[in-house]
Amino acid sequence: MEFLLNPSQPAGAATDAPSPGAGADLIKEGSTQTFMADVVEASLKVPVIVDFWAPWCGPCKQLGPVIEKLVRQAAGMVRLVKINVDENQDLAAQMRVQSIPMVYAFKKGQPVDGFAGALPESQVKLFIDRLTGGAKAPIDLILEDAKAALDSGDAKRAATIYAQILAQDSTNPVALGGLIRAATMTGDVARAKQVADGLTEKMRAAPEIAAALAALELAEETTGVGDTADLTAKVDGNPNDHQARFDLAMALYGRGRNEAAVEHLLELVRRDRKWNDETARKQLVKIFDALGPTDPLTVSARRQLSSILFS
C-alpha cells in the first residue's frame, strides 16, 4: 500500500535517505534545479527512472532498494534519479505526484511510463524490461551462461559463475539455487548444505531455490542405497518387494536415470499406493519439484500419477 503524500509531515520519522552505494554514476539524488539535466536531457541518451520518495514513507523504503538493485544489474541500460518530495515540493506538484512512492520513466525527453506504490521485484523488472525494449541485462546473460554450463554437465564452471554473481548480489535466487545445484552435482554436498543453511524461509520459497533444495535432499537420500544390478535382481525376483523397488528407484535417480526411477516409483504407487505412508508418491512429488514443473518428465509423470490415484 502506498502512503498519501503529506509534505507537512515531519521528515524526522526516518533520517537516512536510501543510499546509491555502488554504481552511484547510475543512481543520483536529484532536485528541482537538476531535473532538466539529470532526467530530461539524460533521457535523450538512455532511459531514466525517477523515483519520488520521502524519508517518512515506509513503502518507499521497500521499493527504493529494489529499483536500485535492478538498475545496477542493468549496468547502464537505464539510470535512476531519486527525488525527495519533502525537499522538492514544487517539482512533485508539477509532476502531479499525489502519493508516494511514485515512479516515472523518461525516454527521449518525455515521460513514457510509470507506476505508484511498492511493487514486487518481478513487476519492477517487467517495468524496466518495457523501458529497455526487452534487452537483456548483463546479469541475465551471465545467468544464462551459468545455466548452460550446468545443463551441459560442467557443474564446476557453473558453480564459479554463480559464486561470482552472489559476490555482487548475495540474495539473487537464481544464483543461489544454481550454486546449490552445482555443488550437489559435483558431490560437494557440504557446500550445498552450507548455502542452504544460510537461507531465510522467504528465500527458500523462491521456485529456483525450492527446486534446488529438493534436488539436494534427493541427492542425500540416494547415497548408499545399493547397487542397481543387485536391486534389479531383487525386484525381478519379487515384484512385490516394495522396499527393493523403492531403493532401486533412488539408486537409478542418483545415477541420473530419472525416467527409470520415476517409472519404478509409479509402479510402486500402482501396486500399493499406501505403502510406508505413501512414500513413493511423496518421493515422486519431490522429484517433480527438483526437475521443475515444465520439465517433460514432470509433466508426463504427473499425468500418470493422477491417472493412478484417481482411477
Largest sheet: 5 strands, mixed
CATH topology of the largest domain: Glutaredoxin
**In which order are the strands of the major sheet placed?**
2-4-3-6-7
Spans of at least 5 consecutive residues whose pLDDT stays below 50 are 1-24
Mean pLDDT: 89
Question: What this model shows, in words?
Answer:
It contains 15 helices and seven strands. The chain has helices spanning 35-41, 58-74, 89-94, 121-131, 138-151, 155-168, 173-185, 189-197, 201-204, 207-221, 228-237, 242-254, 258-271, 275-291, 296-309, and strands at 3-4, 27-30, 48-53, 79-84, 99-100, 102-107, 110-116. The radius of gyration is 26 Å and the shape is elongated. Residues 1-24 have low confidence and may be disordered.
In short:
The chain has 311 residues and is of the alpha/beta class. The protein has helices spanning 35-41, 58-74, 89-94, 121-131, 138-151, 155-168, 173-185, 189-197, 201-204, 207-221, 228-237, 242-254, 258-271, 275-291, 296-309, and strands spanning 3-4, 27-30, 48-53, 79-84, 99-100, 102-107, 110-116. The strands form two sheets. Strands 2-4-3-6-7 form a five-stranded mixed sheet, sandwiched between helices. A two-stranded antiparallel ribbon has the order 1-5.
